[in-house]
Amino acid sequence: MSSSIRMSEPQISALCIRARPAAGAAPPAARILTRSALDAEPVGKRAVGLAHLFDYLDAYRDGRIAAGVAAEVTRPAPGRNTYH
């Protein structure tokens, strides 16, 4: 028997942001990863959406993603919207 929990986007965002620093992510990285995961869901990119949260948490815990650092864009490039 499975059950589900309904949460609003702000509730999901708050949960994700709290979970990532607990795994070692710097707060700015936690916000960026959360926003990216939430943005992926409504356009059908579930593989990198919320389901990917556990991969991120494991990667911080296992050292595959450096904890406590923030990304810096040094060569910005124009974005391209491929979700029509």
What's the SSE blueprint?
Blueprint: H1 9-23, H2 27-40, H3 53-62
Describe this structure in words.
- The chain is an all-alpha fold.
- Helix content is 46%, strand content 0%.
- The chain has 3 helices and no strands.
- Helix 1 (9-23) packs across helix 2 and helix 1 packs parallel to helix 3 (53-62).
- The longest helix is centred in the first third of the chain and has 15 residues, at 9-23.
- It is globular.
- The model has no long low-confidence stretch (mean pLDDT 79).
Considering the chains and any ligands shown, give keywords for the structure.
mainly alpha; 84 residues; globular; 46% helix; 3 helices
Largest sheet report: none
What does the radius of gyration come to?
Answer: 14 Å
Question: What class do helices, strands and sheet pairing give?
Answer: mainly alpha
Mean pLDDT: 79
Helix count, DSSP H or I runs of 4 or more residues: 3
Order of helices and strands: HHH
What is the count of β-strands?
0
Question: Which outline best applies?
Answer: globular
Oligomer: single chain
Strand % is: under 5%
Distance between the termini: 37 Å
Low-pLDDT parts are none
**Share of helix among residues?**
40-55%
Summarize the structure.
The chain is mainly alpha-helical.
